[in-house]
Amino acid sequence: MTKEQHYIFRIKDSTPESMPLKKLLDYYKRIEQVFSDVGLHLIKISEGSHVGTLRVDNGNEHRIKERCEEIESGTAPDKAKRGFDEINEMLKKDSTTAEFSACNGADRKLIDFPGKILDSRDVQIRDMMTFVGELYYIASDLSNEDRVNVRIKTGDSGKVRCTTKRKIANGLRGLLFEKVKVSGHGTWIRKELKPWHISDFEINNFTHIKSENLRQSIDSIRSLGINWPEDVLSDLRVLNEEEK
Questions:
Q1: CB distance 114 to 97 below 8 Å
Q2: How many helices (H) and strands (E) does the chain have?
Q3: Can you tell me the distance from the alpha carbon of 65 to that of 15, in angstroms, rounded to the nearest whole number?
Q4: Higher model confidence: residue 184 or residue 226?
Q5: 147-153 and 123-140: which strand pairing?
Q6: In what order do the strands lie in the sheet with 40-46?
Q7: What does pTM read for this prediction?
């Protein structure tokens, strides 16, 4: 039988005796948000510095590791991000920090909750921006018939929530699960010790990014009808020498 994997959530400078029950439950409610689709169970609360021991459903250990990596990289689902942020806000008010670790002989820390060392001032920059990603969601905004909600999965900024006009959305519908380049106005937000992420992005324009292999790219260039010199490399070397 496979041995169960246990994890601990440790709140520093706090004990179960000193923390009101409501606040204790609020912390674990947010931990449940971070790992809501994984299946964690609280099995013990230890004395001393507050330590809660949790058990994961069998076979879900890899999902714990994946979620911790997503939290660190800023690519976790929105619900998990909110849980992480709210825990840090609570810790900041309580002037302490916390950590989530795996129990495997020597505790192995998976997530830091910096809490009190966070700078309360978020950095926000709103400007024109362009980014590339896969269009994976498009749906009408039930609260405004002229607006459409769009989701784009990017490599650097994770999943970006966007909005756009219905006219632009009609053009995007045929590109679902395709790579697109979108332009518009958005807000870059950076919280202390966390990567930048894009917020409230308004799509004003888009371009379909076609995937081409080398042969297709060469054929596309040739189809432009440009009168290339017979020996392009030699001509480039001459130009470089003249510039020197």
A1: yes
A2: 6, 10
A3: 27
A4: 184
A5: antiparallel
A6: 40-46, 51-56, 6-11, 98-103, 108-113
A7: 0.50
